[in-house]
Specification:
The protein is mainly alpha-helical. The protein is 56% helix and 11% strand.
């Protein structure tokens, strides 16, 4: 069995090796490719940051107040830069509103009236 100083040396050696491998991993994580340089968050995180609901968030995306980042799988991503810019101008500018489309009238109303007239004549 090893003596206590030898055991401590082995433990310190193991710790140094782990520390060096962690530094290597951190260096690789900090070195990003241009595609990874785009910082983005998911819809859920953006909702928490802005304090709004999902439909309001998608309305902001549609109006151009926020910009989308490339999707990750099926998840919609929103750029952090657009979120920060939106929060900065939040108190200065009103939120852009979408123009609502007028409700569509029920089609076939005229046809229904014509059919009812024919039935009443008979």
């Amino acid at each position: 069995m090893e003596t206590e100083p030898e055991l401590l040396r082995a433990i310190y050696k193991e710790l140094r090796e782990l520390s060096e491998s962690m530094r290597g991993l951190e260096a690789r994580l900090n070195h990003q490719t241009p595609a990874q340089a785009t910082r983005a968050v998911s819809v859920e995180v953006a909702q928490a940051l802005l304090g709004c609901g999902r439909s309001q968030l998608f309305a902001l995306l549609k109006s151009g107040a926020l910009s989308r980042a490339p999707k990750v799988g099926k998840a919609v991503m929103i750029t952090l830069a657009s979120l920060e810019a939106f929060q900065e101008r939040g108190s200065r500018e009103p939120v852009p509103r979408l123009q609502r489309r007028p409700a569509r009238r029920a089609s076939g109303r005229g046809e229904k009236d014509a059919i009812l007239k024919l039935i009443r004549r008979a």
